[in-house]
Structures are given as C-alpha cells and as structure tokens.
Amino acid sequence: xxxxxHLLLILGISAILVVFLATRSKIVVKDEEQxxxxxxxxxxxxxxxxxEEHQMAIPLEVQxxxxxxxxxxxxxxxxxxxxxxxxxxxxxxxASVFDSAGYYxxxxxxxxxxxxxxxxxxxxxxxxxxLALSPQKxxxxxxxxxxxxxxxxKLDPNDLNAKTNLGMTYVKSDSPMKAIGMLREVLDQNPNxxxxxxxxxxxxxxSNQFDKALIRFQNVLRIEPNNQNxxxxxxxxxxxxxxxxxxxxxFEEVLNGEIDPVMKDELTKTLNSLK
Length: 275
Description:
The protein has 275 residues and is mostly helical. 70% of the residues lie in helices and 1% in strands. The protein has one domain (2-27, 96-273): Tetratricopeptide repeat domain (Serine Threonine Protein Phosphatase 5, Tetratricopeptide repeat, Alpha Horseshoe), CATH 1.25.40.10.
C-alpha cells in the first residue's frame, strides 16, 4: 500500500536511530520482499588502501575530506590515529555512507573495545543493512551489526538500546519472530521503553496489523505526548483502518510544528490525498 510505504520511509524500522530516521525518507526504498531478493546493479567501489567496500558512490567532496585525513595517518601516534579514524567515520556518517563509517568505527572499537565504540559500530552497520538491496550486502552488514551489538551486551547485558537494535537485525532473516521475541524481552525489562514499542508498531504495520500498530503508537504517546514519529505512525494506521478524519487531524497537528522538510512534503502529499 502506498500509504504504508510512505510511513515506512518516514518512520523506518527502528525509531531510535536518529540519523537513520533523518535520511531514510530521502532514499527510494523498494518493497521489503523485493529489497531482499534484488541484487545491486551499481558498480562496487573498492579502496586499495584499506579494502573497505562502499555501499554507494562517494561524492567527490567526501573523498577529498577523507583523503586529507588519511594523509595524516602516516606516522600518527595511536591516540592521533584513533582521532583520525573517528574523523573519517563522521565524514562518512554525514554523507550517509554508513558501511564505510562502520568500517572505521570498527577499527576504533578493536583498539579500544568499550561500550560507546561498539555501539557506534553496531548502529552504523545497522543503518547500512537497512539501506542495502543486494542479499550479499544485507548478510554482510547484518553480521557486522550483530557483532557490534553483541559486544555491547557483553559489556552491559542491560543495554536496552543494543538489545532492541539486535532484535531488529532479525527482521529480514529466516527468523523474523526472533525480532519480536527480543523486543518483548526488552519490554519485560522496561514496559515503557519507547524504541522497542515504536519498533513493534512498525512491525505491526509491515504485517498489515494496523489495529495493533495503532495501540502501540497510542502507548508511546501516553509516555511521550510529543513524539512526532508516534503521531505519524498513528495517523497512517488510522488511514488503513478507514478512520481518515482522525488521521487528517493528526497530520495537520504535526505539520503545524517544526518538521523535517522532506518529511513535511511526504505528509502534505498524504494529507492532500485524503481531501
């Protein structure tokens, strides 16, 4: 359904990845089943220096910034090297080249294996995984993401962020119910953990269980009354449940607030289609 696809562009699969939520709506994403089956037709780019494979073409401006930092790597102290790796990774994050960002975050984490560093590895590869189209890329990135989150959980078994994201890596796998099971485990630990509730809401929408999705988003709004993503999820669920007047009211409320321009354009189109 068109409305459902629009929501998934805006909401994404996991509401806790801020960068992913900000960039997901700017990328043309295929139907979930097609995305898993389709192989990428784009030319892979390889870096002879460090052999990381890029998920997308790298803009010249980004290449120049990265090249400048790499020049400084020669003879750099371990501390300076870590700083430069971080700078390179952040350049890639800003350009939405998440696989390459993960590559450098992992270099940092291997040398300094703390919770923060492994979290950055997991989240970068998780975003690369969600945007990948070829089965080979999906498999490679999901394994990297799982490793990052598992490393976090070894250091802190109660990290609900890592456990939620780890669960969501199973959505496109042969064991999608494992995702739901892990999210429910998170909610057993903290019934009000919004990212897990939002993720379950998104999964309910994917399976066309809009009544359940609506309840999930309503629960989020009881916890966080100003959660824009929950309002959007609720509005799209209401459309699918043929409760369009209620959906229109929510869209108008969201559009009256501060909102990302791309998201605003999508919501405006949806609202106009209801008139």
